[in-house]
Design brief:
Blueprint (H helix, E strand, L loop, with lengths): L5 E8 L2 E8 H9 L1 H19 L19 H9 L10 H10 L6 H13 L3 E6 L2 E6 L3 H6 L1
C-alpha cells in the first residue's frame, strides 16, 4: 500500500464546512494540530458572519419626532405612515427604525403590537421574499370610528 495517497477530511462547524485535501502526511500533520485549525476556522467564521450582518441603513430610515413616553403601537404607526412605510417592513426593519429614533422596546413587545394592529385592521401583513412585512392600510382615526 502506498504511503503517498491523497487523503480528504471534511469538518463541519455550524453552517460552515472546511475540507482538507492533500497527501496523507500533510493531512495527518494538520490533524495533529487540529485544535489550532479549528480555532482559526472558528475565528474566520465569526469574522465573516460579522461582515455579512446587515446594518440598518440610517439614511433610509425616517427621522420621526416621537415623545419619550410614546406607546409601542403609536410609534409603529408613526413610522409606517412615512414614505419609508410605503414598502412592507419586517420586524427587524421596524426595530432598527425605532432604535435609530431612540425609541426602545423589547422585540416581543413590537411583535405583539404588530399582531394587535393587524387584527384591528390598521396594518396588513404581507408575504415578502424575506418573510412577512407590515404596511399601514388605514388611518387609525378611521378604525376608531367604526
Amino acid at each position: 500500500m502506498s504511503e503517498n495517497r491523497e487523503l480528504k477530511v471534511r469538518v463541519r462547524l455550524g453552517d460552515c464546512e472546511a475540507e482538507v485535501v492533500g497527501q496523507k502526511e500533510d493531512v495527518l500533520e494538520i490533524l495533529a494540530n487540529f485544535e489550532k485549525v479549528v480555532s482559526n476556522l472558528t475565528s474566520a467564521i465569526r469574522y465573516q458572519s460579522l461582515e455579512q450582518k446587515p446594518a440598518v441603513q440610517t439614511e433610509d430610515v425616517p427621522q420621526v419626532q416621537m415623545e419619550r413616553n410614546i406607546q409601542a403601537p403609536d410609534a409603529i404607526i408613526k413610522l409606517l405612515s412615512t414614505d419609508w412605510g410605503n414598502r412592507p417592513r419586517n420586524l427587524t426593519d421596524i426595530m432598527g427604525a425605532l432604535e435609530v429614533n431612540a425609541i426602545h422596546f423589547p422585540k416581543g413587545t413590537i411583535a405583539g403590537r404588530l399582531t394587535d394592529l393587524t387584527r384591528k385592521g390598521i396594518l396588513r401583513r404581507v408575504k415578502t421574499a424575506g418573510g412577512f412585512g407590515y404596511v399601514l392600510v388605514k388611518n387609525p382615526q378611521e378604525v376608531s370610528q367604526q
